[in-house]
What we know:
By secondary structure, the protein is an alpha/beta fold. It has helices at 10-19, 26-46, 51-55, 57-71, 93-106, 118-121, 142-149, 168-177, 195-198; strands at 86-90, 111-115, 131-136, 153-164, 182-187, 201-207. The protein is built from nine helices and six strands, in the order ααααβαβαβαβαβαβ.
Amino acid sequence: METEETLLKASDVRVILETQGCSFASEVWEKLENWIEILEGLNRRVNLVSRKEIQRIWGRHVLPSVSLLHFRNLHIGVECRPDLKMFLLDSRRRKCDALEEMVKSLGLKNVEVLCGRGEELGKTRKWNQRFPVIFARAVASLEQLEIWTREMRMTDAEIHVFKGGDLKQEFQALHQNQPRVRWSQTLLDFEEFPFLSENQKYIITLNFTSN
């Protein structure tokens, strides 16, 4: 029997992650809470997500995104890698404008917003085979995501994807298209927030190799 979804707050997510051995500086949590406030304000003007989704954002969005850093042992935060440049990609102008406003409001110096499509951007000289690590939510099938990012990513890149459901057929289609790709699949299973595991939410990592 499926349990009722709990609406998490910032403090709830922090406790869940710390239980997993994943902790961040207070400044990081302050920035996340500031981001939510900015998102809520922008959403009244731009309609980025549904109002109901705003209420669920800590559990359905922040928790999976931040837990990725823990489960894949990634050190990409501003405090961990101040030299790292991050790019946010979307093809819709209104969403890019909103992202630029968020980046400016949060004072993120190492973040740049790109407006366009990955499959087109990667064909340009500046962005061809540029990215060693790519993050995505469930924007498309794994096979399609591989095609869209093919020109953008380095030959030995990793793609980390947040997806749900039975992915057996997607893995089979991806393997037929890219036999050398390797992948790992981690179920987001948190005792304090069973919604993710009950709905088969995973972190998928695709590893490519030039060999």
